[in-house]
């Protein structure tokens, strides 16, 4: 079993309540604050305990009862769309009006952090469920940090248990994956220990709405369309990691799986993400099957929309193709779109998000070249 446990102490010193409601800065993360700790062992050494989701759901439900969520996900409509793909539609009317606004350019993948814009140091401590920190082994002390990783509620949830994983929250990192943060997200998926709790990531330019490094996750006991897509293996690395392309799916992308250990898989995917963001290519990630499969999806919707190449009909739906939408879980803002949703309308939307076959081929080849040290044809 893992070393997962919870504690009410913190490592920075201070009083019990912090400085105020809309703050998660150092004054609110000092020793004595009542911010619980979930401690996990290094992934791959031991199996996770079952109490990660139990703890997360308990605290998420508590924040719901306290009225911190902008809407009740149980009151929102959800339906399976008939067809061979198995898309899922979820209705949240007016969600864009309640979400925190996007305060940066949506067509640039790398942008510097701006402390004057909204970021996660400006949320309230009551939105945080717990710290998420690593320990060396079963009973060893926690690997502490002056800037802890935290899991917080998404105040505009799209499903049950919708949370944000914010690595090193006080370091104020921009929305840009590195090896350490991606391994943390993989560890969160591993701790959940169920295929129904997925972790997602949106780069800037691919509908991340806050330029402060974070991942999203929520629970849904259904299979996403992308998880059922046929695949074709295009490469196997020396570590055993297999790289596949999606076949007959409306959004072009890659699937990473296997490897001699969990970290090899994590490092491979993070290296691919780093290549894409350094190249200015927008992308979305879905961490599936408790970290066993990772989908890397490429899109160009924001670029097409800025050039006026997206149909007005689709623009008026106000749907944003982020990781969940590209994976087949469509969050809709208008009842009309939800009621009239069909496989054809979803395919029309997703087809306008995907890069062309020729562009995808070139990007895939470049990713393999970037990973060439471990590549076996």
Keywords:
377 residues, 25% helix, three-stranded mixed beta sheet, globular, 10 helices, alpha+beta, twelve-stranded mixed beta sheet, disordered N terminus
Average pLDDT for all residues: 86
Q: Which residue ranges are poorly predicted, with pLDDT under 50 across at least 5 consecutive positions?
A: 1-17
Instruction: Please identify the structural class as seen in this structure.
Output: alpha+beta
Cα gyration radius (Å): 20 Å
Residues in β-strands, percent: 15-25%
The sequence of SSEs as H and E is EHEEHEEEHEEEEEHEEHHHEHHHE
What is the strand arrangement across the widest sheet? 1-4-5-6-8-7-12-13-11-10-9-15
Tell me the total number of β-strands: 15
Question: How helix-rich are the residues, as a percent range?
Answer: 25-40%
Major sheet, described briefly? 12 strands, mixed
| First-residue to last-residue Cα separation | 38 Å
In one word, what is the shape?
Answer: globular
What is the overall number of helices?
Answer: 10
